[in-house]
Specification:
This protein is of the alpha+beta class. The protein has one domain: Sufe protein. Chain: A, CATH 3.90.1010.10. The protein is built from five helices and three strands, in the order H-E-E-E-H-H-H-H.
């Protein structure tokens, strides 16, 4: 019963982010921009980042594709908007742990927040690439910009 309620709540979060994506306003002159696609299913994502003087991140994520890829992008944008740029890689690493079914501490789960709604994707290996698309794009930006924690 509790598991069903949790799954329903996670589904609501994913569908809300799919239908009402956050942080989709594109920047006129982003510091970094990357576009990625999944050739197997057609998912597309564009991430733009601006870095403020105080090292805070402003993010924009747009795209088209399945509910999982688009919700994942929206959840990513919501999470990283206004965090310190040095925390980006840690956030990607936590998401990767979640998707790979690695054990997460309570603190790590709290850190992920609503992103945990994507944990059900790991039951469907073919959909993991959908969930990871935005995160792989973000990781590419981290590498390009030499941001490491």
């Amino acid at each position: 019963m509790v598991n069903d309620e949790l799954n329903e709540m996670y589904e609501e979060i994913v569908m809300d982010h799919y239908h009402n994506p956050r942080n989709t306003d594109l920047f006129e002159s982003p510091d970094f921009e990357i576009e990625k696609n999944n050739p197997f299913c057609g998912d597309e994502i564009k991430i733009q980042l601006n870095f403020q003087e105080d090292n805070k991140v402003s993010a924009s994520v747009t795209g088209r594709g399945c509910a999982i890829s688009q919700a994942s992008g929206s959840l990513l944008a919501e999470k990283i908007n206004k965090i310190n740029s040095t925390d980006l890689q840690n956030t990607v690493d936590l998401f990767r742990k979640l998707i790979r079914s690695e054990e997460l501490t309570e603190e790590e789960l709290d850190e992920l927040g609503d992103i945990s709604a994507l944990s059900g994707v790991r039951k469907f290996p073919v959909r993991i690439k959908c969930a990871m698309l935005s995160w792989v794009a973000l990781e590419d930006i981290i590498k390009q910009s030499n941001l490491k924690n």
